[in-house]
Structures are given as structure tokens and as C-alpha cells.
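Dig into my protein:

:::
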Amino acid sequence: MQRFDFKNMIKTYINNGAYGAALMSAKIGLSFDFFQPEILYASAMLLFETGFILEAREFYRQSLIQQPENEAGKKEFLSLFKVAFEHPLVKA
């Protein structure tokens, strides 16, 4: 079975300024396989840019959960959402 390439579709939509279509494609792709940190991140940025801040924060958080060593992402998370990233299963 051949897999559909959601990453390229999302990139194409973003390059064409079709952010709603890019976000819908990302959500569809995630419904098939949620463990795609790049698509979660793209979704977070699309949601942030369109004003859906709480949803953006959750998508970004899910992306970072899948990439626990992403220090640059954690800094960006703090910068965007004004709260530090906390992994729900790891207590500091």
C-alpha cells in the first residue's frame, strides 16, 4: 500500500498561501498517524498564525513530547506562549 505524502501537500498549500487547506491536510495526515512531530509543528504554526492560540499550544506541546531533546523548540514554545514547556509524564 502506497502512503500519501501529506508533508509535501502541506508545504505546497503553505507556499500558495492556502493556510486553511494546509491545516486541514495536516489534521487529516495526523488522523492516520499522530506520531509525526513535523506535521504537529506545522499545524501549531498554522494555528498560531490564524489566531487559534490554545489549539496551537497543544499541537506544539504534542510535537515536543515526541522530540524531548528539542531545546530550540522548547525556547520557541516559551517565546510564543509565554509559558515553559512541561512534559506531562516527566516532573522537573
